[in-house]
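Annex B.
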Amino acid sequence: MRDFIEKVEKREHLLYDEMVEASRMMFQEDTDLEEIVNFLIGLSKKGETAIEVAALATVMKSFAIKLNEPAGDYMDNCGTGGDGLNSFNISTTSAFVLASAGATIAKHGNRKISSAAGSSDVLEALGIQPSIGPEASIELLKQEGLTFLYAPNVHPKLKRISVARKQIGKPTIFNLVGPLTNPVALKTQYTGINRADFTMEYAEVLRILGRERAIVVCGAGGMDEASLAGKNELVLLDKGDLIPFTITPDEVGLSPAPVTAIRGGDGVANAKIMRRVLQGERSPYFDTVLFNSGIGLFASGIASSIQEGVKIATDTILSGKALEKLEAVIAFNEKSIMQEVLS
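Anthranilate phosphoribosyltransferase: predicted structure tokens.
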């Protein structure tokens, strides 16, 4: 590992095979934790490349447990996190909207690492425990077209990496690979990053990993979601083609709002925000979910345009379908936990 640390500290990029070897070493129990920390910090200071991200994602996914999900057109809308803007859990809220509108969502997520509340923190506050097993997670996917995969449950080798990430306390390459390592075989993806300069390269990684269709967004102000605050930079991956474009909220009938208007808090606070959004309470929180759900529906092919996607998302929430989906997932989770206790 020392050789790889020295190379990245010299601002030299790793070749694919080098990054594969370094990644495997990070997941070995006998690799010194301090070396893992130094390697991750060195990569971050240097700036990760598409090759390095793709290599780490491939290795990490190879270590994930096999879920044996039935064949299907699965989608993830997990973002990379790490934008430091303390927004509420936009993609987690949007997942309920997307699933209610007909997409089949297998959402990868974790607890907070560099944010106030990760997806698992807000789900737990809603009564959706991340501790249900993989079999129950897939059964939920079959029944509701939506499941949440808690990263430590499906990536057993992540424990020491999580310790290193918490020690660093800032985004690392693992933020970039998080959305890329879903153990479910994804055909479609909508994901966000907080680096406008890396949007095209990130879409290239998705192409390397075999996504048929995907959208990568870097929101106004460096958000890892589409933002109401201004112009958003996106790349559409469609059958191998990478198509960059921009979009603003007013282009899809939504009102601009500053990032400060969608600030969140801990898991409990964000759970309250999520419920208000899914109950149809109009606010910048509501419009931000519409914006991101609309893009997700366009990425999935359910909507022929983002504007149509926003309309479908609006109808889905105001009809009560998204809130019903939330309650159904909570009820399934409670039943699964009870069965585990009794067995």
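The first strand starts at residue 74 and ends at 76. The chain has two domains: 2-63, 74-327. Further annotation is deferred to the next reporting cycle.
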